């Protein structure tokens, strides 16, 4: 089955908007916030021609949950899979959606997700196939969080010495709409004292989901929040039939998550390295062997976990890291994410880790320090297959995936300010198997220079 090609032309720009009743500036697409919903069928190819209409900054878009098999340059991660698209320039994202599901897309450069650059991507089952559940209608619900302070100011706050924390969001948004200062809405909605404007301006009036009695509806729910963890519980029988993981691993990587100071700046670090992104995207520099483009020193495979709740942190071994974990193609990799103390005594935070380019199995999680004997408790029979998993405070989480997708892939905490402060690593596998990487993905840093030289020779 060939599948259809679906074409979109998008322009990203800043615009005035009132997501929660207070006017601010959002990053919109084609004049919309959130951006347009993409709807396709499994097997289709999406073409998004993205033009950057921001005046002074680059932009990229990541398709969260899409594995990008054979198209790693379309993954939309600045400095990893491509150069940020310059103002006035257009980049073509062309990729196949191979699995039905509810996905979303978002900016992946600086804190552009906090600025409102996101939207939904829905993939229906392939032409001629049936959904496993029967339903009469469906609703799409995209959750996000919103600050009145702009994303650039937030970036400066987080990077300054001392760091200024951005605090809780002013408003939670559903499909880009919320009500600032409206936590009392349930109690006072009938009184004229209510600050909540439940009707009125169509930018923030809530969406009303219209349902008919005795009908069955599917809710598609995705969260693109930059910080907030939202809990939602529905009792449904879990779907059987996900593939099972390989029974053993070839390699196990321990990733210790700590919070530390580098020259007075607060950073998150993984095995003592705090992620910094290079000027030359990793995909091109690895493919073409540009050794000067990033730190070729291998990142540490494990460091002694400092887990005691009162222990001093932030030792001198900490450094900026742009190292890459090189994975042997087609091997099975276990990742043990180990949580630890943050800088404040007795505080350990929750981190949702997201892997690009793959789904992984969540084999287990637990409290305290991971030891090899926990392995006996791994769920190898029916572990959940996901692309994001949480590590709990002072806990560990064990993941398994197969490194079968040639490319360079980010693996990071999905809390936007944490990623900005270095909470991520980069995996690479099978890069030499890739054919030609499109020039547009290479046009900056050393790969850009290389292109120029080829042009002039
Ligand atoms: Cu949804 Cu690398 O992120
Ligand atoms: Cu985090």
Automatic annotation (TrEMBL):
Chain ranges of the Plastocyanin-like domain: 12-124, 139-234, 313-430
Q: Which InterPro entries match?
A: Cu-oxidase-like_N, Cu-oxidase_2nd, Cu-oxidase_C, Cu-oxidase_fam, Cu_oxidase_CS, Cu_oxidase_Cu_BS, Cupredoxin, CuRO_1_AAO
State whether keyword Metal-binding applies: yes
Cofactor(s) recorded in Swiss-Prot or TrEMBL: Cu cation
What family classification does the UniProt entry report for this protein? Belongs to the multicopper oxidase family.
Instruction: Just give the chief location class.
Output: secreted
Protein name as it appears in the record: L-ascorbate oxidase
Q: Organism source for this protein? A: Rehmannia glutinosa (Chinese foxglove)
Q: Respond yes or no to whether keyword Transmembrane helix is given for this record.
A: no
Signal sequence annotation? none
Q: Report the Pfam families cross-referenced here.
A: Cu-oxidase, Cu-oxidase_2, Cu-oxidase_3
Q: Kindly state which keywords UniProt assigns to this record, in alphabetical order.
A: Copper, Glycoprotein, Metal-binding, Oxidoreductase, Repeat, Secreted
Q: Subcellular location, in the record's words?
A: Secreted
């Amino acid at each position: 089955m060939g599948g259809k090609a679906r074409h979109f032309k998008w322009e990203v720009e800043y615009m005035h908007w009132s997501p929660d009743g207070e006017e601010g500036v959002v990053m919109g697409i084609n004049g919309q916030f959130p951006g347009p919903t993409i709807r396709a069928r499994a097997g289709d190819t999406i073409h998004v021609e993205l033009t950057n209409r921001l005046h002074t900054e680059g932009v990229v878009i990541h398709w969260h949950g899409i594995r990008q098999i054979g198209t790693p340059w379309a993954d939309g991660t600045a400095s990893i899979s491509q150069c940020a698209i310059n103002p006035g320039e257009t980049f073509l994202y062309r990729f196949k959606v191979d699995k039905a599901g509810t996905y979303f897309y978002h900016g992946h450069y600086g804190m552009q997700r906090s600025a409102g650059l996101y939207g939904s991507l829905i993939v229906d089952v392939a032409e001629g196939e049936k959904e496993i559940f029967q339903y009469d209608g469906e609703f799409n619900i995209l959750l996000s969080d919103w600050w009145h302070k702009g994303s650039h100011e937030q970036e400066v706050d987080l990077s300054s010495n001392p760091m200024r924390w951005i605090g809780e969001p002013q408003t939670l948004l559903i499909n880009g709409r919320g009500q600032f200062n409206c936590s009392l809405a349930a109690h006072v909605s009938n009184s004229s004292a209510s600050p909540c404007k439940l009707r009125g301006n169509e930018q923030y009036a809530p969406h009303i989901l219209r349902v008919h009695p005795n009908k069955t509806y599917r809710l598609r729910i995705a969260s693109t929040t930059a910080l907030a963890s939202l809990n939602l519980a529905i009792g449904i029988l879990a779907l059987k039939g996900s593939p099972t993981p390989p029974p053993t691993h070839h390699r196990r990587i321990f990733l210790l998550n700590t919070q530390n100071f580098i020259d007075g700046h607060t950073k998150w670090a993984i095995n003592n390295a705090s992620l910094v992104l290079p000027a030359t995207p990793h995909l091109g520099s690895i493919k073409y062997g540009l050794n000067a483009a990033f730190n070729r020193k291998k990142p540490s495979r494990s460091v002694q976990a400092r887990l005691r709740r009162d222990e001093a942190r932030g030792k001198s071994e900490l450094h900026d890291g742009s190292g890459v974990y090189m994975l042997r193609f087609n091997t099975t990799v276990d990742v043990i994410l180990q949580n630890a103390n943050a800088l404040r005594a007795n505080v350990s935070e929750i981190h949702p880790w997201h892997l690009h380019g793959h789904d992984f199995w969540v084999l287990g999680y637990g409290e305290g320090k991971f030891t090899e004997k926990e392995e006996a408790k791994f769920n190898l029979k029916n572990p959940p297959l996901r692309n994001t998993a949480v590590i709990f405070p002072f806990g560990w989480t064990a993941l398994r995936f197969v490194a079968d997708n040639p490319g360079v892939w980010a693996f990071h905490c999905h809390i936007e300010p944490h990623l900005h402060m270095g909470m991520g690593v980069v995996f690479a596998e099978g890069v030499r198997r890739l054919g030609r990487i499109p020039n547009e993905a290479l046009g900056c840093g050393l790969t850009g220079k290389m292109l120029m030289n080829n042009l002039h020779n």
